[in-house]
Description:
Helix 5 crosses helix 7. The chain is of the alpha/beta class. The protein is built from twelve helices and twelve strands. The radius of gyration is 21 Å and the shape is elongated. The strands form two sheets. A seven-stranded parallel β-sheet has the order 8-7-6-9-10-11-12, sandwiched between helices. The protein has a five-stranded parallel β-sheet with strand order 2-1-3-4-5. The relative contact order is 0.14. The chain starts with a strand and ends in a 9-residue tail after the last helix. The protein binds nicotinamide-adenine-dinucleotide (NAD) and 4-phospho-D-erythronate. One of its GO terms (molecular function) is D-lactate dehydrogenase (NAD+) activity. Belongs to the D-isomer specific 2-hydroxyacid dehydrogenase family. InterPro entries: D-isomer_2_OHA_DH_cat_dom (IPR006139), D-isomer_DH_CS (IPR029753), D-isomer_DH_CS1 (IPR029752), D-isomer_DH_NAD-bd (IPR006140), D-LDH-like (IPR058205), NAD(P)-bd_dom_sf (IPR036291). Keywords: NAD, Oxidoreductase.
Amino acid sequence: MKLIYYGVSEEEEPFIQRWSFLHKIPVTIRKEQISKETIEYAKGHDGICLYPSVDMRENETFYRMLSNYGMKQLSIKSTGIDGVNLEWAKKYHLQVTNVPAYSPTSVGHFAVMAILMLARNIPMRMHTDDQLVRKTAIGDEIQDIKVGIIGTGRIGKVVAQTIVAMGGTVLAYSRTQDKGLASLVSYLSLEDVVSQADILSIHIPLTKESVHLFDDELFAKMKPTAKILNTARGKIIDTKALIRWLEHSEGGCMLDTLEDEEKYFQVGQEQNPFYQDLMAYPNVFITPHIAYYTQLAVKEIAETALNNARDILESGASMNTISL
Length: 324
Ligand SMILES: NC(=O)c1ccc[n+]([C@@H]2O[C@H](COP(=O)([O-])OP(=O)(O)OC[C@H]3O[C@@H](n4cnc5c(N)ncnc54)[C@H](O)[C@@H]3O)[C@@H](O)[C@H]2O)c1
Ligand SMILES: O=C(O)[C@H](O)[C@H](O)COP(=O)(O)O
């Protein structure tokens, strides 16, 4: 068996090499994302691990070519699977796997950090005028605000539990409610959470139903002083609606994921028109999809993605297979 792993960063490489050594399975490491130019490197391999590139999101050809190369699976090295076309994967008999729970605390604790920054009005643009900072940065303590959590799955649950442990009040909206959380948080309708929360934190996957869930109508329900945090997927927020809301509210936002960010992963988000538009506002803080980025998470992602590929090639199944 021989695997290929696309889009490998410097930090991931040692974990992949160690896995390859321990399991005695050769893994070709490619720094490039899979693209029209790099897909040919997959020839001669039995299995593949990757993060879906924009090319791959939009072209059925990729799925057909990988199938022609003899691939039986697509191991996606992330939790979100919004970049994969499951119908095309099924058509070309490619089993898709993801890494569902590499470390919910990596994103969960990042979100808690961001919620605290938003609560304390940490200036989004640093400047040296102490007096001005004092005037604008007076904040609230966590026990005095309501945090609204959208999606209480693995990550949202960590956020909810931590905020409650710190003395905060959590309002939650989630398709699947967590029984263990029911005594700690108030489950409400989406509209009630959005209209009552001082800070909203999004933790749902990007699906057909959640594209632009936060639109003009939902923003209009938010408190004019509310803040919104998105560590899930950029497209869950209609960025143009967010900007319209920022224009007339006193609110703010922290975004770890941007609309269309995939198109600019290689060249930098400075090229992303949504980034450019958002940066005109002083109360916007953007981080480059790093909520997950810890040593533990990077190790878990690499090892699980490789295990998923190996399991399918060895036994025809993986515990992390996504069904259509
Ligand atoms: N920024 C990052 O670095 C990073 C890292 C990992 C994951 N993520 C994103 O976070 C998302 C959540 O991850 P998770 O592990 O908590 O997922 P999860 O599947 O464990 O939880 C998702 C929760 O959202 C609920 N849900 C799904 N669709 C919904 C909808 N339309 N309305 C209301 N509730 C809905 C589900 O019932 C579930 O409770 C991932 O899909 C991924 O996109 C981001
Ligand atoms: O490989 C990566 O870059 C990460 O797995 C990825 O960015 C995290 O993806 P997520 O878990 O947010 O779906």
